[in-house]
Amino acid sequence: MMCDIQGDPYAAKRQKMVSSQLRRRGIRDERVLAAMERVPRHEFVEEHFRFRAYDDDPLPIGEGQTVSQPFMVAYMLEALEVTPEHHVLEVGTGTGYQAALLADLARDVITIERHGSLADAARRNLDRLGYRNVTVITGDGTQGWSEAAPYDRIIVAAAAPRVPPSQFEQLAEGGKLIVPVGSTELQEVLLVEKKDGRPLTRQLEGCRFVPLIGTEGFSPPR
User: To pair with 221 at 20 to 30 A between CA atoms, which of 31, 97, 174, 197?
Assistant: First the structure.
C-alpha cells in the first residue's frame, strides 16, 4: 500500500516540500503530511518535468490535464479526514498521484478517469509502485461509480458547475464529499457531509482546477 524506493534521490525534496510548503502554510494532519512525504510525486509526471515535481505548482500530464499543486492536494485531503477504515471514490485520476496518497490513507480506493491514456498511465504507475488497494476505472466520473457505492469519502480533482447529484447519492450516510465548484475559470472548494440524507455544505478555499467534463459536469470544449 505504500511505495518504498531504495536510494530515492528525491527524498530530501519531498521532506522540504512538506516542511516549507505544507506545514508552514497550516497543514497539520500528520497522516496526510507523512503520506505526502512518502509518495513519490516525480513518478507521476513526465520525465522532463521531474525537476519541478516538488515545486508547489500544478504540472501538465497530457490530455490538457494537470496534477494538482501539492498544497491544494494536502488541503483537500486534510479537510476530507480520511481514515484507514474508509472506502473512497476519487474522480479525476490523472496519472495516479492523489490515488496513491489516498491508498496510503484509506482502506481502498476506486478512482475514475475519463481519458483512457491517463487511466492506463495511472494503472502502470500504481502497479509499478506497489499500490494494491486501488482500482482504476475509465469512464464518466461525474456520475460516480455506482457498482462500488456507497463511499465513506469522495474527492473530486476537477471543477464542477455544481455538486454532481449522482456522487452525492453514492455517498454513505455521514460520509463526506469534497469538490471544487464554480465556473471553468474560478471555483471554491466545497465540503459536503451527508446528514439524514441531506447535504450539509461548508465553503472552504478559493481555487482553480481544470473543468470536470461529463454528463453531470461541464460539456466538452468544441
Answer: 97
